[in-house]
Structure formats: C-alpha cells, structure tokens
Input
Amino acid sequence: MLHSASVSLLVEVRPRQYHDSIVLMVASARMSAVPGVEAAMAAMATPLNLVLFKEMGLWTEELAQAGDSDLVLAARGPEPEAAFLAAERALTERGTAAGPGPLAPPRTMRTAAGLLEGANLAVVSVPGEHAAWICWDALTQDLNVFCFSDHVTLADEIRLKDEALRRGLLMLGPDCGTAILDGVGLGFSNVVPRGRAGIVGASGTGIQQVSCLLAQQGVGISQAIGVGGRDLTPEVGGRMAREAVRRLDQDPETDVIVVVAKGGSDLAGLEARKPLLTGPDLTDLALEVGGGSLPADPPLPEWNGGVQGIFGGGTLRDEAAAIWGDRPGFNAVDYGDERFTRGRPHPMIDHTLRLDAIRRAEGLVYLDVVLGRGAHPDPAAELAPALAGRPAVVVLVGTDADPQGLSRQRTAFEAAGAAVFTSNSRAARAVLSAGPGS
Amino acid sequence: MPVLGPEGPRAVTAGAALLAESLESPQVRVDWRPPLQRLAPDPAVDAANARAVERMLAVRPQLVAVGTALDSIPGMRPDLLMHSGPPLRWEAASGPLRGALEGALRLEGRDSADLEPCHHHDAVGPMAGVISASMPVLVVEDAETGRRAFSNLNEGLGRVLRYGANDEAVLERLRWMADVLGPDLARALEAGGPIDLGSINQRALQMGDELHNRHRAATSLLFRELALRGLGAESLRFVDGNDYFYLNFAMAAAKLACECAAGVEGSSLVVTMARNGTEFGIRVAAAPERWFTAPAEAPVGLFLGAYTQADANPDIGDSAITETYGLGGFAMAAAPAITRVVGGDAQSALAATLEMYEITLAENPNHQIPGLDFRGTPTGIDVRRVVETGIQPVINTGIAHREPGVGQVGAGLVRAPLEPFLAAHRFLAS
Output
C-alpha cells in the first residue's frame, strides 16, 4: 500500500486580486476534479471562507493575514500544482460569445410573429384540437389566418371568425384547403395567371377546379379566398364569405365575383354591386365567367360493368355523385374523407389508399388528380402504371404552370390508356351517358 | 388592391412542414409541439390577464418603514412562526427549515408555535423564510394603492437562520438586528423619508444585477440612500458587508406587485411561486387562496468548497417571488457576471431571458435590460403559456445544505416543476 508521504499542501495568497464568487466556484470545482487532489478551493479570504479553508484542512498561517480583497488558492494532494494550473485556466478563460449566435426557435405564434417584421398572415395546420388556440393567438397579434386544420369545434370557428371581423382580419378556415392571396398560393393551390375574377369558396378543390378552368380560357384571378368548408352552413352563416365578397366588391382589380359553394349552402346573405356568379356545376360556372369553351371531350374507353369513382377531392366527388344520381353501378367514394385520413396523409399527397382501391375496382376506374402547390410532385408516376391495361377516366385539375405540369401529367396518363378530362362535370356526364343503364 | 398588404404575404407558419415549404413568401416557422393539455381560446381570460398584469406593472414599491413583525404585519401574533413556501406541518419540514424554526422558538423564548406561510400574511422570506414576532421587518408600500408587503432582514452569508443554523452566534446576530439594525433603519426612514425600491431595481438591472442571486449593485445603491439618511456606522458596516442585503428588499417589492395582481377573477396569471424545502407551490390571480403544489427538487448548481450535489436540500424559499415578478432567472440577460450559474456563457443568459418571454404576459417598462436594447424583463407568468409550451420557469437560487445549521453550500438553477401549472390550468378550465 502506498503511503501518503508524497501528499503536500500548497496555499497561495494573491493580495488584492478580485474574482466573482461564481467564477471562483467554477475554479474550485476544476481544482477538485484534478486526479489525486484530496481537497482544493479558490476563494476570496472573507472570514466565512477562511473558516471553510480551516475545515477542509487547507489552512496555513499565511492565511491569518489575508483579508476580504485577497484571493486564496489552496490544494492538497500529490500534485497540488496541477490543481493550481486548473484554477488558473478557470480564472483566465473567456467565453467565445462575441455576439448573438443562433437563438432557440420560437415556440409560440405570438413570439414568432414578433420575429418577422410586417408579418400579416398565419398559416396553421396543427392537429385540429389544438388549432383554435393557435388561430386565436395569431388574430390577437393582428395576423390574418389561413387555417388548414379541421376538427375545430363549431363554437370555436364562430368565435374565431367574429374576432377576425372585429379586428378587420380574414379568418380563412378552419378546414380551408386553398387560397391565392395577392398572387401567392396557400395550401393546395394552382399556379394560375392574375386577372380580374375574384373567387370566394367554401371548397378547396372546387376553387381549384374553377380557377384552373378559368386559366384554360385565359382568364386570371385577382384573389381566391377560401373560407372553410363550414362557412356557408346555416350555423356559421357565411360570416367570412360575406366579408370576402364585400372586399372583392370594393376591390378595383376585381370585375366579377365567383362564389364556389358546396351543395346545401346558404347563399342568401351574399350580395354585391358587381356581378356575382354561382352555381352547382363548377364547369358551367367557370365557362359563364370566362365566356369561353372547352376542347371536345376525349373518346371513352370500352368497358364492362360499373363505374368506380375513386376521389381525392370531396367537392369533385359530390359533383360527380350528383350527376350520377342513383344510377345502378355508379359508385363515388371520397378518400379524402376523415374516416380515411385519420392518422395518414391526404390522398392528394399519398396515393397508398387509392392505389389499393384501384386494384380492387371492377369496371371503369374514375379518378380525380389534383395538381398544384402542396400536392404530390408527380401523381402520374404512381397512378398511371396502376391504370395501365384497364379502362380508366382521369380528371386532371391543374395548369401547365403547376410544378407537375398539366401536359406532362396528361401525356403520362394517356400513355397508360386513360381518357383525360380537365372538367369533372364533363367527364361525369360523358361516363354517365356511356355507362350501364344508359 | 392587396388583401394582406403592399409587400404581399409575410407569414408565420405552424404545423405541417409541407405547407410551409410550398409557401412562396418570407416566413418564420413556429417550433410547434402539442401542448401538455388542450387549450381553449377565451377572451374573458385574456381580458382578466391584461387587467391583472397591468396592476402588477403599475406598482411603485417604496420602503416606508421598518418595525417588528408583531407591530407591522397584520395578523402576526407571539405564538406564530411564519415560514417560506406553501403550508406544511412540522413533521414534513426539511433540515434547514427545522433548524430555523427551532432557532426562532429559542429566540422568542417559546416551546411551541403555530406554523403559517409568510405568503398568507403578505410577507416573504428567503430560504427557510422564518419570521417570528420580535424580528424586524421591511414595510414596502405601493404609493398609488397604499397596499403593503413585508420581508425580514438579511443576516448575511454563512451560518445564518435562514439556512437552518441556530447556534448562539446566529441568535446573537438576530438579537443585534432586532435591537440595533431594525431601529436604526426605522430612524433613518423617519428622518429621510421613504426609499424608492422601484428606482433601485431599475438602476441595479442596468448595473448587472438580476435581483435574485446578484444584489451587489442594488445593495450599493441602497447603501447610498441609507448613508444619506444618516444610518449609524455599525449598521452601515453591516449593510456593506453583505452583498445580498438587498435581496429581501427586492423580494418585498416583488411580493407587493404580485399581491396587487391577485384576486382578478378568471386570470391565469401566476402571483406566487414559492418552496418550503419539501414542496414547490404556485398560486394564480383567479384563486389566490389556493395552492397548487408538487415535490420540490434539488437545484443543480455550483458548490462552495468541498460540498457536492449530494449535500443539496430540495429547493427552498420565497425568493422565487422575484421570478414571479420578472426578475432573477427571468432577468439573467441583465447579469452577465453570474451567467455561469445557468451553465456557461453570456449567450445562455440571453437565451434564458428570451425563453421566458414565451410564457409571460408583459414586458416590464420599469425593468429594462441594456443588453436587450432596453427591452423590459419578461413579466407575469401565464399558466396557459406554460401548458402550451412546456417551458418551465427558470429560477436562480441559493442552495442550502440538507442538514440544519450548515448553511449555504452553493448557488444554481432550478426549473419550476410543471405539475402545479397543469393542476392550476385544470382548475381554471373547470
């Protein structure tokens, strides 16, 4: 066993050398951490600290003469010099922070709003049960809100919209899929030219269908204001649709106002001095506004059996289902419905569910494919192979300026043998007149 | 005519990255995570909070008098000992609190006494926070409303009652404070008038104090005020010898501001954070009579001499009233000299203060931080923001030895436990 003969005590008083007590605690910790050190401390020689030195066995007579403004270094161990070196480093080191480095990202809407000068919009897509709180936070920061989230309670929707109106802000949503504000697309939206038609809509895909068919006729839009799927229900009473119409009515860059509503909507309160057009058939509406026409329908493939409408857009499903009525053999399923999307991405982003449905389907497959910002980067790459060798109709909602490119997508689907339409109602009618029971 | 503004959309996004990435405009993203409990927007709570925090900010604390606890604090009586934190029974008291209570009993010449929190008597005390009838206390008053709050006098560092030491030297010092220091301070105030603590707070923040763990500037400023009022030489020397002397002044001022905010119906503003060495408790403006508690945790920090984390008592003291008022840990950016307590450099001090803006209702224009371009300190914790972000209030604190009588063994940082905030939110939502 080794004896402690080599252990020694080193004490040094440095007169009138001042260090902050926190710095000295760091220095003490570093000294104690040196291997072999039995006891060590760096401290100002206050009466209190002198007692501590004594208790720790770090006392020499020299300390009796030291005072408040003197620094004491003391260490006991085989190599007390090493502890002194560690103290020296702790006392002389300087932080590296020369200026503000990367700061923690903002955790709340309020704080984030303060970090962007001139912020005027919040885009909210958190899970629905938490969306109302974030939207409220945005409104109180005087931000307009685009709320993609759904599953917000009716009471919260009304409260949010009333608060927005009180503050002169737009509350688009909850459950708002699309908007194009001042030429910038939000959510799922298509790259369409700017122009003089203003759109107000409760349906995201409905707005997309209308704006794309307008673009096809060379007609641009001033604003496309989605107000959320429930805005035009009797409960919400068109609170935000009325405000949107009012704004477009006053907007010198808007000549005509187009209202895209879902079936069963209450449009009674929507009035404007400018022409205000609406209607159940989105294509008829777009043609009425644009005054143009669509190219002739493509020939349909031959098929036996029924029609399986495998939709990603609820409004497009409803439009087709209304045309098909209760004709036997015609089925229309919205895979964007919440019973399919709970816990998984929307079919405009993820094709897994619809690919399964295509495989299971018999007869004619009727597919809507929505292009634009936010949508899948190349739907044809995944969907067209599944359609190859079987009768199919594809409704493509998009423009050539969209990231996926309308023509490119059309070519790929046509190569797989599908009949490609850009109008849902035209396609639905064509299929109806050629299908079973016609 | 633009809908959003002449510069087009300038967006804040929260949620799916996909929507943010496809948005072609300048944007800031919220680092959004699900809240700890569901939050519901409520304009009535917003309005109540605005009223409550406005009251907190409006307070102008003045030191108006020093007198015995018995004479000064309404409801004080000879058979009562006040202590820090939420209520507790003798059996539940930790080492330092027991030591302090025993010492106070001897000081008062009693065998037993009732226990009640300082906070139930508009008072606060650091660490054990024990106040007995004969002790001198600071009387801090709001000039506008006339409301008052109280704190005891700071004994200094080392073996002191508030850390549970109760030997004869400790009691001797307390007797001197009652016989000499207290009456001296009272005379100085009578002669020279009240001392504006709000003004000292503001100046001290600009001189590198955060007013919980660093009071060097504030104590010096107080020294000048007391010297001008002719405080006796012996008392002045005592003030000069203790850089923490101002702590109790800062605490009483903070308590006064929090007290003025208490009792606003519906408000989720936190008006108390306090620890008794066993439990950590908070109270909110809507229900100031009700404590929400959780077990107190041991602070993590730097230790004096050979002491280590194992010696640390669970968190203790009413001094977190400073953080409740936007000082201390919330004002770390003002105090670069003690940034090592929060784990390192000036950057981490800045980060601590900036993080606290996420959970507070206001920025105190009377507590400006030069290093943040004179932005006011983050003031007035909103229970809802704590629930939303999971950000735990940061508290700078002294660390007591777990055995009575040893005293201070370190200084460091503690984060308030979340549980009381969650319980308070459940209560407010029901």
About this structure: Chain A touches chain B through 80 residues (CB under 8 Å). The longest strand of chain A covers residues 194-201. The radius of gyration of chain A is 35 Å.
